[in-house]
Amino acid sequence: MARYAAGLGDDFLSLQLLATECPVYVAPAMNPSMWKHASVQTNYSLLKTRGVQFIDPIAGVVACGESGIGHIADLKVIADALEITPRTKSETPASSAHAIAGKHILISAGPMRTSLDPVRYVQNRSSGKMGLEIAKLAKKLGAKVSVLLGPVENSIADQYSEFKPARYSTPDQYEIELERLFKSCDAFLSLAAVLDFELISETKKIERDRLSQSNSLTLPLKSVKDFVASVAQKKLPHQRVIAFAAESGTNEQILERARKKMLKKSVDLLIANPVREGYGPEADQNEIWILSPKQNQPLYSAKDYKSKLAAPILDAIQL
């Protein structure tokens, strides 16, 4: 990276990089402290201004045995990035023709928490991976991307850093940020696993003694606002609201419940996915059905890696 940024061409690879006119992708891998070093980050930023595309390193154990952000990205992620790259500068990039190019896309992703007491909370299983894949592809296709991000793992949160996400943990925090960000977006993709209900939190830590007799604990619940339905009701004519629904049961049961939700919430599209082992929350793969109020049958259905499913989801948005 340093040689490339400085324009040095005194070895074979550097010479080829300086002489090529095709798009260049760089997938760095190095010691975590080296990756954070100011000189490396300066070269990284400089090369990006020159059009070099980066597939950033991820968290993991690197060759020297240390752990942190510096491990090379998953090979499938690298291959997926290259698949949508035009071969030469003379080719028309996908972003110039795609419906979301130049549009403001808002994506919510990740889990949501509800407090049990001052030291404990309950959280659902959303990883934020699907939202990340959609955000990265939307940016590549020329959209302005904003992200509303829940309490995901640090390794995922680090990959969202380029989008400078607004963060939330609780339903109240989510509502405040959604109200602020939704006003300026052209399309809102609600991938966050928002809670249907939350606990009425105890003001003091719950002591073990409360379980001594019955060996169980009953806590009151209250419903959480349907955020998707709320913004769908007040969206402007140019805005689109795309909901996601994780459902259990057979494919037929999933599609039936998903269609009812889509019509009840008055959204423009609903992406349904199953709650099954190996798919959906926390997994790298998913199975999806894209439903539209205008169609009786799904617009699209497939099982694949989340990185592959981002494209048909964005293709389905009509702006």
Explain the overall architecture:
The structure is a single chain. The radius of gyration is 22 Å and the shape is globular. It is built from eleven helices and 16 strands. The chain folds into two domains: 2-91, Rossmann fold (3-Layer(aba) Sandwich), CATH 3.40.50.1950; 96-315, Rossmann fold (3-Layer(aba) Sandwich), CATH 3.40.50. Helices cover 32% and strands 23% of the residues. Residues 86-96 have low confidence and may be disordered. With 319 residues, it is an alpha/beta fold. The two termini are 38 Å apart. Strands 9-8-5-10-13-14-15-16 form an eight-stranded mixed sheet, sandwiched between helices. Strands 1-2 form a two-stranded parallel sheet. Strands 3-4 form a two-stranded antiparallel sheet. A hairpin with a 2-residue loop joins strand 6 and strand 7 (120-123).
